[in-house]
Amino acid sequence: MGAQLSKQVERRKAISAEKKVLADLQQNGGCDFPGSDYHPPDRANWMSGLNPDNIRIHQIVWPGTHDSATNDIGIPLVTRPFAQCQSLSIYGQLKTGARVLDIRVQEDRRVCHGIILSHSVDVVISDVRKFIQETQSEIVVLEIRTEFGHDDPPDFDQYLVDQLGEFLIHHDEQVFNKTISELLPKRVICVWKPRKSAQPKPGGPLWSSGYLKDNWIDTDLPSTKFESNLKFLGEQSPAANRKYFYRVENTVTPQADNPVLCVKPVTDRIRGYARMFICQSFARGFADRLQIFSTDFIDEDFVDACVGLTSARVEGKA
């Protein structure tokens, strides 16, 4: 008992020290970067507002959400706090400005986060379709994967094509060099990541797992995650030279050996430092590598930071 208590005391000290590291870095380094003062007048149509004729896919800093379809997961006040990573519905996230969605499914096509379940993936697809039908030039990257520990839903690739076929941007590496206008009226890049089933074929309506990469480390230590994100981003080639999407997730996650297991208080240790991360990527010389930037509990300020940098890139200021 004493050893366990001592371990927890040391863990709390480590977390406090890492939170102070980020706070000090922000105080000393600031949060200003090209486009940091930009605020889109209409976040639901921010791509349209930046002129789709001028925006190439590789120039976009895509605001994304982590564990996107968890707003009503589990049982309220019972299991939900341990699995909820977003407070908005998929439609609400898209209206707020999110353009990359991270959806986890299990065998029966229900959304899940580990063992905790949510609604059918049909709800996700319905929200995506609704948003697309209400807008004209917004491109969405939809990543759907089979959750760890689960089997793939049967015939799920055909389900996705049946549900989204008219909107799907087919796999083609030249997409990264094209403008938004050149892709329209197609609107969705769908990356399907099965665990055991065959990967989508080249040239087909779905994109395979190799086209959306990240370097996930599972930690609740905010400075550790922040520096890891910078390290791995710095090892990437510039976005203009890549033929795949690279994602940085501004998140930390609860750990089983720590008594704080609810997502919100843990992820809040890093969530407010998104602008500083962009600023640090400039300070360290690799802001041109930032592409997908994801968060828990997305808000308007996070979207504005990503859109602002996108605007600066399009204008040749970054």
TrEMBL record:
Domain Phosphatidylinositol-specific phospholipase C X: 51-193
Record SUPFAM superfamilies: PLC-like phosphodiesterases
Any one GO MF annotation of this record: phosphoric diester hydrolase activity
GO biological process, one term: lipid metabolic process
Stored CDD domains: PI-PLCXDc_plant
InterPro entries on file: PI-PLC_domain, PLC-like_Pdiesterase_TIM-brl, PLipase_C_PInositol-sp_X_dom
PANTHER family per record: PTHR13593, SI:DKEY-266F7.9 (PTHR13593:SF113)
Name assigned to this protein: Phosphatidylinositol-specific phospholipase C X domain-containing protein
Naturally occurring in which organism (per UniProt): Erythranthe guttata
